[in-house]
Design brief:
This is Cathepsin L. One of its GO terms (biological process) is proteolysis. It holds the Pfam family Peptidase_C1. This protein is an alpha+beta fold. The protein is about 25% helix and about 20% strand. It is built from five helices and six strands. It has helices at about 10-20, 25-35, 45-55, 95-105, 115-120; strands at about 5-10, 60, 80, 110, 140-150, 150-160. Strands 1-4-5-6 form a four-stranded antiparallel sheet, with helices on both faces. Strand 5 (about 140-150) and strand 6 (about 150-160) form a beta hairpin. The longest helix has 11 residues, at about 45-55.
């Protein structure tokens, strides 16, 4: 299974239940507006969640689309796709706890080792990198589900 390191539980399930579909939230909102992070140069999941809590929400991706560069903050409360009143950590490396959180809470932010060409060039299918390390977090993604295919367990992950 995919190596993972840190998990922040975010209120994505509430956005799903309220509107009847999974709402895509704006990465660009965080890049431009979460000053505790470093824009396109990287950031921290806790700081991003703290920004969303203090800000009163995060805009939808459709209202604040990804531009792949740092920009001026133009958050608009009228376009909030989800709010976050708090978060908790799933113990590092505890895949059963992560499954339980995904099933009962909703989308979970995780940090993975994405420093391999196989990840950079990934197109489709189950990603399995034998050199994946659990001690070098480098990229945040969102786990939105899990399953088993041909006897191989996998995480269903949303990546920008």
């Amino acid at each position: 299974m995919l190596g993972f390191f840190y998990h922040g539980i975010f209120g994505g399930k509430a956005a799903y239940e309220e509107k009847g579909k999974l709402v895509s939230l704006s990465d660009q909102n965080l890049i431009d507006c979460s000053k505790e992070n470093d824009g396109c140069n990287g950031g921290d999941v806790n700081s991003a969640l703290e920004y969303i809590i203090k800000n009163g929400g995060i805009d939808t991706d459709s209202s604040y689309p990804y531009t792949s560069k740092n920009g001026t903050c133009h958050f608009d409360k009228a376009n909030i796709g989800a709010t976050c009143t708090g978060y908790l950590n799933v113990p590092d490396g505890d895949e059963e706890a992560l499954k339980q959180a995904v099933a009962t809470v909703g989308p979970i932010s995780v940090i993975i080792d994405a420093c391999h060409n196989t990840f950079i060039n990934y197109k489709s299918g189950i990603f399995d990198e034998p050199k994946c390390r659990t001690d070098i977090p480098s990229h945040a993604v969102i786990v939105i589900g899990y399953g088993t295919e041909n006897g191989k367990d996998y995480w269903l992950v949303k990546n920008r």
